[in-house]
Amino acid sequence: MKFRATLIGFTAILMWSFLALFTAASGKMPPFQLSAVCFAIGSIPGLVVLTLNPARLALLKQPAKVWITGIAGLFGYHFLYFTALRNAPAVEAGLVAYLWPLLIVVGSALLPGERLRWYHVAGAFAGLCGTFLIVGRNGVEFEGAYAIGYGAAFLCAFTWSGYSLLTRRFDAVSTDVVTGFCLATSMLSLFCHLGLETTVWPATVFEWVAVAGLGLFPVGAAFYAWDYGVKNGDIQILGAASYAAPLLSTLILVLFGFAELGWRIAFACLLVTGGAVLAAQDMFRRKIQQPVAAE
């Protein structure tokens, strides 16, 4: 059960790795407008399930703390991330924001039934170093003038890690509630768009397909898979493995001709993969010991 849930959680990381490709192909829609449209699309699978099985609507009746955590996690993360990109260089802001996997691994020590080992932290740190090689390949320079942007990026990392850790505490809450989180995030993003941005719609059918792909996978199904994974799987492994997202994203961009392969990516691959394997050794031990226990 735990192994299967961890794999389901990892599919979210795989879907997030397509975020850059779909975003690059989606045209020039401003961030909050794109977020509003994509989260609306992302809620459709959940709405279909609820329509076909109305009895599941009862699962949406949850305490206020569940709804506050979910909406703050999804909308708060994206609001802070866009704020960071508006007030700091993308490279530096991205690196600070991508502290969230390490924060998840370290923060897991506060969860009941979890034990934080040195190899969990070492694996997550290796992944962070690999991400640094990818994102900061053209150099990194933090400047005091962008303190607001860096602060928003750190709050962004803290928000998503906090959401993931708190979600683990709501393990009895059905993943159906993610549908409501997506709808609320879409509406709040729409309000931000109307107040802060100029509306720009996709210009071609190809761009609309990319937007639909964003909504169905990285900004849709991924959040359902992540919710199930962190509630029922190994959250420490998922935290460390999350650093695979920027690596896989870069490899996908290389495959589709948006980036070039170099030694940095190759070394980053070793760091991220090695870090994930190091952090996951408990799971490997359990898989090896299972046949012995059965005998």
Number of helices: 14
How many β strands by DSSP? 0
Shape descriptor reads: globular
Strand content: under 5%
Our measurement of the CA-to-CA distance between the termini, rounded to an integer number of angstroms, reads 20 Å
Structural class: mainly alpha
Return the string of H and E elements: HHHHHHHHHHHHHH
What's the alpha carbon Rg, rounded to whole Å? Answer: 19 Å
The portion of residues assigned to helices is over 70%
Q: Indicate the low-confidence ranges by residue numbers.
A: none
Q: Whole-number average pLDDT?
A: 86
Largest sheet: none
Question: What does this protein look like?
Answer:
The longest helix has 28 residues, at 205-232. The protein is mostly helical and 295 residues long. It is globular and about 45 Å long. It starts with a helix and ends with a helix. The protein is built from 14 helices and no strands.
